[in-house]
Amino acid sequence: MTVYFIGAGPGAADLITVRGARTLAACQVCLYAGSLVPRELLAECPPEARLVDTAQLDLDAITEELVRAHGEGLDVARLHSGDPSVFSAVAEQMRRLDAAGVPYEVVPGVPAFAAAAAALKRELTVPTVGQTVVLTRIARQATPMPEGEDLATLGRSGALLVLHLAVRYVDELVAELVPSYGADCPAAVVAFASRPDETVLRGTLEDIAEQVKAAGISKTAVILVGRTLGASHFRDSHLYSAERERHVC
């Protein structure tokens, strides 16, 4: 058997990849994060599949379920919101499976920051304005951040920042970023990206915190900060330039 770590996407059930949906439909066991994964996706599972909501399970209990399925010769779909490559807690599960000799594969998904950019109708990298995107979070009640990855340090790069798991502390992060970006720097918050209750806030570091409070947003949101969010006067990309030399095969 094989454990498949599947990116379920940012929220909308139809944003799972074709490969993810096909893999899900072929697995006899499905472990899913009930608080984050859309329940409509479970309809893709075989009718006889064993469904396990991991919202209240710790790492030991999740590992036990995966190893048990392996012992029974059953393929497992491990559904994670967004994409497994960032902020998914997949790494420690893989480490446990390596130790137990259980094979696994990863099926990528649409990450939350991509869904947020789509909601904003913005390209996050704009020629001559910004070509770097930093995905990060802040440490409060979660695992501490490594040395050198605090917001003050990251902010000095001037790169477009995408902050996960941080909207509850929007006042604090604004205070940390204003010295590097300036109060007039464009900022946005997208909550429940791609879902029917999606909320999009646009502003600057000066007013985004008040907008968040007024909207009552406290979870499942992505914060974006950077000059590319408001860029309108920039040079066209070299990719489609008439001056670019093209070879016709």
TrEMBL record:
Keywords: Cobalamin biosynthesis, Methyltransferase, S-adenosyl-L-methionine, Transferase. It holds the Pfam family TP_methylase. It is an enzyme of class 2 (transferase). It comes from Streptomyces smyrnaeus. This is Precorrin-4 C(11)-methyltransferase. GO terms for biological process: methylation. Its EC number is 2.1.1.133. Gene3D superfamilies: Cobalt-precorrin-4 Transmethylase, Domain 1, Methyltransferase, Cobalt-precorrin-4 Transmethylase, Domain 2. InterPro entries: 4pyrrol_Mease, 4pyrrol_Methylase_sf, 4pyrrole_Mease_sub1, 4pyrrole_Mease_sub2, Cbl_synth_CobM/CibF, Siro_Cobalamin_biosynth, Uropor_MeTrfase_CS. Pathway: Cofactor biosynthesis; adenosylcobalamin biosynthesis. It comes from the Bacteria. Signal peptide: none annotated. Residues 2-208 form the Tetrapyrrole methylase domain. Belongs to the precorrin methyltransferase family. The gene is cobM. GO terms for molecular function: precorrin-4 C11-methyltransferase activity.
